[in-house]
Amino acid sequence: FIICSIWLISSFDTRLYEDKFLPKNASSLKSYMRAHFENYDIGPVIMFVIPKPMNYENKKNQLLIHNLVAQCLNETAMNNKFKLVWLEQEDLHDVLTSRNPLSVRLTPYSQNDLVISDKKNRSAIKASRFFCQYRSTKGDRNDLQAMYNMYIYAEQSSLPSIFPYSFIFLHYESLAQIRREVYLLTIFTVTTTFLITFVIFLSFGKALLIFTNLLALLTGSLACLYLFHNLTFNFANSLWLFVIPVIFLDTLIHASFNITK
């Protein structure tokens, strides 16, 4: 039950909007960040990048882009009021055929979203990107599932080499990997503790006694996770959850070895 609780109940907390990590004299910045976090459905953006040239005038390709954006907006973790698709704002024909500078052909919103190669008679779009947006950075199961779904949608799309990217993905993927390793380490510690004590002492009672101490330690860790971190899993307490079973197992091995001597 304790092991399953660590896996099922805990959520992620990236602490990206935590006041503790902002300068002490940055009161206006704190107010700004708190207002965005508490009053608006504003989180990090997700950009879909098409790194290869393709025919953007093709209606099928345009439909694929809009379908991908629609899939993103339909996710419960996403801000369904925000999208930024340069195809909806720019005159594609003018972008490809005009001889004017890019600053004239493109609105300020899209000038960083296109890589254009100018040729003699016609320009070519070598790469582009478009955006949707998370509601928050809580890192709960909806946020993680939305990230995995973005990868799935991009993989299933026929758009050439398209991939999703967000700076928050790095945090979510790292925390997911660390949580998985902590979970496996806990299972390994529980199993190894019981087997070592039972083999060394050849006593089910002694093995059960030491095993109970380990369960009490894990229960205390889960209680601290609840009291001080609201059952959230972050880069600080992940180290704590990782080190405690290792220290216990190392101490157990040395103590058991000394007893047998």
From TrEMBL:
InterPro entries: Patched_domain-protein (IPR051697). The keyword Signal does not apply. Keywords: Membrane, Transmembrane, Transmembrane helix. It comes from the Eukaryota. One of its GO terms (cellular component) is membrane. It comes from Adineta steineri. The chain crosses the membrane at residues 182-202, 208-228, 240-259. This is SSD domain-containing protein.
